[in-house]
Amino acid sequence: MSEKADGLKAMLREVLAPMLRSDGSDLYLVDLSKKELRLHITGKLSGGPGTPAVIENVIAPAVAAIDDRIKVFVSSGYLVPKTAERIEPS
Predict the structure, then answer these.
(1) Which of 5, 44, 54, 62 has the maximal Cβ count within 10 Å?
(2) Residue 13: which of 77, 62, 67, 80 has the closest Cα?
(3) Reported pTM
């Protein structure tokens, strides 16, 4: 795994997952490649009116701080993609 991928996973675990959990949501890693990061959110932010703002103002800038070339895709809802791995806050 690359250094940037390790940094992204650490940021998900140490920053975003605890932040979302404190708001009643869980974060899942669906896929990570050199060009894309796919996440899924369940709980309070799954499809709520604040979800786009959280993605645009919190998740995307946090990812860009590590690698601004990675495109971020975030889905949400009760059904979690089969390949997704729940990010446990550290």
Answers:
(1) 54
(2) 62
(3) 0.93
Span between the terminal Cα atoms of the chain, in Å: 20
Identity of the residue numbered 52: P
- Each of the 90 residues of the chain gets a pLDDT tens digit; together they read 588 889 999 999 999 999 999 999 999 999 999 999 999 999 998 888 889 999 999 999 999 999 999 999 999 999 999 999 999 998
Residues 19-28: contacts with CB under 8 Å, at least 24 apart: 19/58, 20/45, 20/54, 21/89, 26/86, 26/87, 27/86, 27/87, 28/80, 28/81, 28/84, 28/85, 28/86, 28/87
**What sign does the CA torsion over 27, 29, 8, 71 have?**
negative
Kindly report the CATH number that applies to the domain delimited by 3-86: 3.30.300.130
